[in-house]
Write a structure and sequence with these properties.
42% of the residues lie in helices and 18% in strands. Bound molecules: adenosine-5'-diphosphate (ADP) and magnesium ion.
Length: 697
């Protein structure tokens, strides 16, 4: 059955060896199955026509019928183009060709009604279509034309005459052969419950739908299937891991109580308490924990992590904590140092810049079991780092680590898989979290420590800079500190640096009374650290920086975050930066500076920042604006190669698919029941061939 879909594309009638080669190298289409899954990215409705007067901005592709009134070649050399005017009984629009201008000019006829097809763009009060497709208008023919699929191709393919239309012809031929052979890949009860099209009809209609409704039904079915199988896979992974991974039983709380009663400097928030309970249940269960801890910037994840460490250490295990940057690793180390000393525990810091001698000492203490806590960067993953009894691995800011690195931390204990706690401050939209971390349990700290006031966020234009500076002066006079952040704008680091240094100079001139620090990514770590420490100690009042300060740095006295060229930052980054302030008891401010002219999307980002401080709302908007592929850290995971589903839009469907997968695995974990036969079959065929499946783990 599957062998048919594994047939090499060369065997399809009309596809020669050369063409097959081109399809393989350009589009990764090697087999019948690959071709069928090369879904069109949109369809053209060639039965609808617009009057020219109806044309509006933001319209997708349109068709208008009209006669060509004027046509002339304008410009010289490479700028030479053909400009024609198309007229119907309601108005005129412009048609422009940059390529083949002369050839087209020779063929355009006056007094012939054409159908012009393309995407309109607005220029002042006029509309123009670049490189329209032109056909002589024939009334009867157009009515019979249903939705036309449009396929992705490449320039190289087009040169070998494999354009979208050619691919459509191949698909049609293949579907005729394949239709009867397409197996159903979902069990009947799911098809009935969600009213899904049969698989073969879904494939037929995703390519050649008779109308929009069928197209939608086809997409729905294929999306559901795609998400269902991803979730099924992740859930199965989790079940297997749980069944085979015994975890150390870490259930001793005496160290925690000691800390709690004597040294805990504040009352934990309810959210922190709840999350600690959830983690404690895992740690003492005897099964290996794999848990994601989500909490907005400043929600107090470090303290949660520390208390979990104390449970582990009190129960006789060692712990590791990994951060994505040296600065952050150091900050964790410093923030815990005091408590660790008081409790009489041993902790070490291991980063890329740890000297060899210190390294050796750390290795020895790790192996003897004398070192309780090892904090560091991915230097922790190196071969020589061997624990005597690693019980808990904590990964901060998981976003910056790949899934593979997370797995490496599991392998640091031969006898048991250590418990893993992954912490992330970048709020990941639920839909994305489910796909990326579907194999993890999730805990959320959804509450900030008491007394925090939400950061007031405002948008100011560059020309109001003097007023903004006046405000900064007032804040400094009241004893507050200020961040001023510059984006990485130019392609070249040199220009970026110049930009930052110009900013630094102008700040120094504007604030002669205030000492200013400057930090950027190209400084030596020691120098960076020195400047950072000056600011932390309050000796400098203004910190001019690039985004190196984005992650983790904690200066409670800093109350203003000024972001220059705020339109150049993504939403997630803006939110992270804003999280640097508002950590003390004072009212804090975030000032987003931009030029007068900014894009529509930038405006939405800035308005979102002004409207809310809720990290999850911001993350959802970010996902909507950018699409999931751009969310930091998701690219390397490979699981976002979705064919039809769109995580930014199909969140609800993802949840339903996940629920369906949960119910099935609950009843039939091995998928042995007769009704689940299609699932098992499909998984086996996926294992043999494809792409998505193998990338997930
Ligand atoms: P994040 O979740 O961003 O890592 P941190 O753990 O750095 O946040 O905590 C931010 C600040 O809040 C730290 O200074 C920390 O000491 C403080 N903090 C944490 N929990 C509480 C609490 N329950 N009450 C008051 N302050 C707290
Ligand atoms: Mg943190």
């Amino acid at each position: 059955m599957t062998s048919f879909f594994n047939t090499k594309i060369d065997y399809l009638k009309g596809v020669g060896e050369r063409m097959a080669q081109a399809l393989r190298s350009e589009l990764n289409i090697a087999t019948y199955g690959d071709l069928l899954q090369h879904y069109p990215f949109r369809h053209e409705d060639r039965s609808q026509y617009h009057k020219i007067a109806e044309v509006e901005e933001d319209m997708p592709y349109i068709q208008v019928i009209g006669k060509v009134r004027r046509a002339e070649l304008v410009g010289e050399g490479p700028k030479k183009r053909l400009v024609a005017v198309l007229q119907d009984d309601t108005g005129e629009l412009e048609l422009v060709w940059f390529q083949g201008a002369k050839w087209i000019l020779d063929r355009l006829k006056a007094e012939v009604a054409y159908v012009a097809f393309g995407k309109p763009t607005r220029f002042g009060s006029k509309y123009s279509i670049a490189h329209p497709e032109m056909e002589v208008y024939m009334p009867q023919a157009s009515e019979a034309k249903p939705l036309q699929p449009v396929y992705a191709t490449t320039e190289k393919l087009k040169r070998s005459r494999i354009d979208s239309k050619a691919i459509a012809r191949m698909q049609k031929r293949l579907l005729q052969l394949a239709y009867d052979k397409i197996p159903e890949t979902l069990p009947l009860h799911l098809i009935e419950r969600y009213q899904l099209l049969p698989k073969r009809d879904a494939l037929l209609h995703i390519h050649f739908p008779e109308n929009y409704m069928l197209l939608e039904q086809a997409r729905f079915r294929l999306k559901f299937e795609e998400l269902f199988y991803i979730q099924l896979r992740l859930l199965k992974l989790k079940i297997t891991k749980m069944a085979k991974s015994l975890g150390l039983v870490l259930g001793d709380t005496k160290l925690v109580h000691q800390f709690y009663e004597r040294y805990l400097p504040f009352e934990l928030t309810n959210a922190q308490k709840r999350v600690i309970r959830e983690i404690f249940e895992d740690l003492r269960s005897g099964r290996q924990m794999n848990r994601l801890l989500q909490g907005d910037v400043g929600s107090g994840k470090t303290m949660v992590a520390f208390i979990c460490m104390l449970i582990a250490i009190g129960s006789g295990a060692q712990v590791a904590m990994m951060a994505p940057t040296e600065i952050l690793a150091e900050q964790h180390y410093r923030s815990l140092e005091d408590f660790v000393d008081k409790l009489g525990l041993n902790m070490a810091l291991l980063t890329g810049s740890t000297r060899k001698k210190a390294r050796r000492a750390i290795d020895e203490m790790l192996q003897s079991g004398d070192l309780h806590i090892l904090v560091g960067t991915h230097a922790l993953l190196e071969e020589h780092v061997q624990f005597k009894n690693l019980g808990l691995s904590i990964v901060d800011e998981q976003h910056r680590f790949g899934v593979a690195q997370r797995a490496k931390l599991w392998q640091k204990n031969d006898a048991y898989d250590p418990h893993v706690l992954v912490m992330t401050a970048t709020p990941i939209p639920r839909t994305l979290a489910m796909t990326l971390y579907g194999d993890l349990d999730v805990s959320v700290i959804d509450e900030l420590p008491a007394g925090r006031k939400p950061v007031k966020t405002v948008h100011r234009f560059d020309k109001h800079r003097l007023r903004v500076f006046g405000f900064l002066r007032e804040q400094i006079a009241e004893g507050r500190q200020i961040y001023i952040v510059y984006p990485l704008i130019e392609e070249s680091e040199k220009l970026d640096l110049k930009h930052l240094q110009d900013g630094y100079e102008s700040i120094r001139r504007a604030f002669p009374e205030a000492p200013v620090s400057c930090v950027h990514g190209r400084m030596r770590p020691a120098d960076k650290d020195y400047e950072m420490q000056l600011f932390v100690a309050g000796q400098t009042k203004i910190m001019v920086a690039t985004t190196v300060i984005e992650v983790g740095v904690n200066v409670p006295n800093a109350s203003v975050m000024v972001i220059e060229n705020a339109d150049r930052f993504g939403l997630a980054q803006l939110h992270q930066l804003r999280g640097r302030v508002g950590r003390g008891a004072d009212q804090s401010y975030c000032i987003l500076m931009t030029d007068y002219k900014i894009s529509k999307e930038s405006k939405i980002r800035i308005q979102t920042m002004e409207r809310t401080t809720d990290g999850f709302e911001i993350a959802d908007m970010d996902l909507k604006l950018r699409g999931p592929g751009d969310i930091e850290g998701t690219q390397q995971s490979g699981i976002l190669d979705l064919l039809v589903a769109d995580l930014s839009k199909d969140g609800k469907l993802l949840q339903e698919a996940r629920q369906a997968a949960i119910e099935i695995l609950d009843k039939d974990p091995d998928l042995a029941a007769q009704v689940h036969w299609p699932i098992l079959q499909h998984i086996q065929s996926l294992k043999k061939e494809t792409i998505n499946w193998s990338k997930i783990s």
